[in-house]
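Feature request, filed as a ticket because there's no other form

It would be nice if the structure record came with a short human-readable summary line next to the tokens. Right now we just get the raw output. Example of a typical job, pasted below so the devs can see what we mean:
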Amino acid sequence: MMAYHIAGLCFSNQSGLTFVHDPAMVALSFLIACAGGFGALEMIERARGSQLRAARSWQVAAAVTLGVGVWATHFVGILAIQKPLPIELAPLTTFISLALVVIACAVGVLLGFVNQPTWKHVAAGGAIIGIGIIAMHYVGMAAMEMPGPLAYRPGPWLLSAAIAIIAATTALLVAHRLRRKWQRVVAALVLGGGICGMHYIGMYGAVGFFPEEPSIPATFSRELLASTVAGTTGALILLALLLVAADRREAALFVAAKRAEAARRMARRAESRLAAAIEAIPEGFILLDPNDRVVLCNSQYRHVYGLAPGLAAPGVKFETIVRFMAETGLYELEEHSAESWVADRMERHRDCDGSRFYQTLSDGRCVQVQDRRASNGDIVGIRVDVTDARQREAAEHDRQKLAALGQLAGGVAHEINNLLQPILTLPELVLERLPVDDAESSEDLACVTEAARKIRDIVRNILLYARKQEPQLTEVDLVAELRAAVSFVSDLIPSSVVLRADDLETFAPCHAAANKTQLTQVVTNLLVNAAQAMTAAGSVTVSLRIVSVSSDEAVELGVEPERDYLAISVADTGGGMDEAVRAHIFEPFFTTKPPGQGTGLGLSVAYGILRSWQGAITVQSVLGEGTTFTLYVPLSRPAARPQPTVIGSREAIAA
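Raw output as currently delivered:
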């Protein structure tokens, strides 16, 4: 039979001595192969989740672990040979076989795990690793010192080489896809079987041509050397697995820390957005913990009660805030002492069933209070300053009441007006039939006629108040008419009363759809009433200003919003009026004058006139200080807006 020599290897189909192996060492070599494969797969999995530099380090470590595992499998497999002779190994050649497989594994792994690997990279990497394993195996076989030549049968040799390349390529391919540990364990068992299969099929194809009884005795213990190599390799693989576990734990801690930091950032962002939203709401908001300490309080809450930021800061007891409010006179305590009021308020606060109640502050403002306890024991408090809303409600109620009174009075006046016609006509007819010398009867009839005419005037005023009669409106220069009315009234008021109307001399013309006679009637009535309100010396001031009424103010006044109005104010320094009087001041027949000195229709008629012009009239009064009536007359054309100038010792509006 012929023999072929290729790359230092002898291939022949001649029969010779075959090798017999120790089963225990064969099993040990299989365990080493599986352990090396599992360690390499674990490191490759760590490389997948690492940055580029760390990933390369893990890939190199995986290659070293795999290479050492493959070499140790081969080495123990060599030591497992029992027959035909004891084994002696050349140290240098054995070391070269180790270096070959480690280098081949490193190159193959790095090539198979480039940034964006393709099947070509995987196939090339697997081929390099497979060739390295083949080279390691046959260089290791060459390290055996034997008394005769060693040949290889081509069939088993080719099969072992194919197994090496296929197993290496498959290992790289599955390493890209494995995500779970049990998958890596199964893959390691398959890889270990492939490594052992390659080695022992290669050994099956090896035949020796030397005597069956060797002349060279064994110089070392196979078992001891195999245990040493297996222990060293196992320690190396165990160290690699410990490093993987430590890095995985560190990575998990790092990821957990990152997630915790992200969660904290999200929580801070959510808290910031919640705080900004709470700060932006128009209501006062306060959040208390189960121990009644402030957690969060917006600026509107502090504004409602006029609190300094430090007083409602987080951690402050709610009772401290309530006690401060009571002791500083913020609340109307009525007959309660500050201590008893605080006790009552805290008892109501602890109930916090979500019901609403109202607090009256010492400055007259009204605050709606609502406290509700959350499921975790926190207390959410809402405070709303409802002063303006209540004033608007009161104004609307007054308008509705006056409208109802006007409707009633108008109906009554209309019926009376129908009955007045014969009362006014018949005395004149009777007077024509009386003898000329009947002076007494003529005087009596004249008294009846005069009384009937006064009743007619009252009825007309009532009808005007009730808007049963629409006035004739024309384009009027309000400022000019006001000058004429003030000039006329100046001769009617006592000399002890000073009438000031500086604005009328400098104010630009303002035109409106009005009735000259009615304007004179309203202004005259206000000026005369103001003069009569002062029992001693005083002053009456007429001032003008142009205003643009906002939507909220328009609702309160009952006028059209976003429109220019001439505001005519008549202010006196008389005794003023209390709230009870002010509430009824525009009602028909209501008067504060002694009996016989007034009909009580002047202001109610003024109210009706302004309403017929789409305007309004308001009153402000402080008992003991004086009263100010303001007429709002809608302008029919845009007016030049004057700038404030100082005339004498006070500010006026100049044209």
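Something like this underneath would help us a lot:
Residues 643-655 have pLDDT under 50 and may be disordered.
The CA atoms of residues 104 and 132 lie 5 Å apart.
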